[in-house]
Amino acid sequence: MNLFKIFSEIEQFDPEATERYSFYSRRNLIKYGTNLAAAAIPTLVATTFNQAFAQATTPPSAAAIEVANFALTLEYLEDEFYRTGLAAAGLVPAADRTVISQISKHETAHVNLLKTALGAGAVAKPTFKFPAGTFTNYTTFLATARAFEDTGVQAYKGQAATLINDKDILQIALQIHSVEARHASEIRRMQGMKGWVSDTTQTSFTQAGINLKTLTGKSDDAIREAFDEPLTKDAVLAIVKPFLA
Description:
Organism: Spirosoma aureum
Radius of gyration: 24 Å
Number of helices: 10
Strand order of the largest sheet: 1-2
Protein name: Ferritin-like domain-containing protein
CATH architecture of the largest domain: Up-down Bundle
Largest sheet: 2 strands, antiparallel
Helix content: 55-70%
Strand content: under 5%
InterPro entries: Ferritin-like_SF (IPR009078)
């Protein structure tokens, strides 16, 4: 087995790969590799590569930690919202309880993932408050759920640029973002609405410097349906602030 050829082929996919191997690891692969049984070489290579990549993980930046805690606060809110709704006697109809329960489990998982990623840097769960009727009227409950899910989708989208150089946190954000979008679509379906945004709250039609009206030539409603609008942190906090005790 030609180890130099292996390194060369790996570099075609990851040019920085061999830079992450210590001199000692590379020297031992070359020194002992030719004396090992052929079946043992892949294990040796895999073990060395795994160690090298594990050591290459860099801590997230202060900006990424701030964004992750921002996301965690939103997930805390959604987690408590669905837990409280499911615990309210007679609120969620039997026909919808399985779906709401599953969404609730997702939100709990999102909280746990972000807390694990942040470790000791994770913010504590705030105390939340909800308007009267939130957990006594199912129509109000679903409308609030839709507002939370839509806000979550737009919030993650709005912070993507900040995370561009923090790949670990970005990956977590993208994994949660897509599920929040599915939640939003499902809640809309339960309300008898279309699965995508078609309301009049979106007022900006420029994304990444591109004028969507000029690009598509479509109506405002059609643009809202085809392109979600990202929200800034300040805009999201303005939406969430009334729920903070």
